[in-house]
Amino acid sequence: MNQSLLSEQHTTESLANLLIRVAKEDRSAFSELYEATYRKLFGIVYRILKNQAVSEEVLQEVYLKIWDKASSFDASLASPITWMATIARNRTIDEVRKNQLPDSDADVDFDLIVDDSMAPDDSFSKSRDLLKLESCLTGLESPRAEMIKAAYLDGCSRQELAERFEQPLGTIKTWLHRSIKQLQGCMNL
């Protein structure tokens, strides 16, 4: 049976409601949020770390952070899954920077990694947002769009970006900051 990354019964709105309840320390809402999203978040973490054991540990830390920071979620700024995915990505990159990680696994529990399909009720909204994002990315100066993709899709660190684009680290930080601001402005039009 092909499972989507998010349970089909959970929409963006229902996940937002779960986060509101989690912010009020509702443990049953947290459990439901975990069940609805852990496959997607594990996939994000694993794609960067390529080690199941470390990915599972990092995922636990991600959910602790979601529990602690749920009150800071703002549905007007991001969808619930985007907000949680950002936490997962950032925590994972911190792990990469902090530690020398063991080699990738030969034996992976692929039941935890599922395809990138979307829940049917989210597909239209997500495809519209993706088209707008692609359009906004084309508005960035040439190397900056590629840099944003490398940072946020491939999980490259700032140091890796500096080496790849042959620019000082400070320049990379400035380019990332300005590019994100530009993308946010474009997406909000």
Automatic annotation (TrEMBL):
The keyword Magnesium does not apply. This is Sigma-70 family RNA polymerase sigma factor. The lineage of its organism: Bacteria, Pseudomonadati, Pseudomonadota, Gammaproteobacteria, Oceanospirillales. Signal peptide: none annotated. Keywords: Sigma factor, Transcription, Transcription regulation. The keyword Transcription applies. It comes from Marinomonas foliarum. Residues 131-183 form the RNA polymerase sigma factor 70 region 4 type domain. Residues 33-100 form the RNA polymerase sigma-70 region domain. It holds the Pfam family Sigma70_r2.
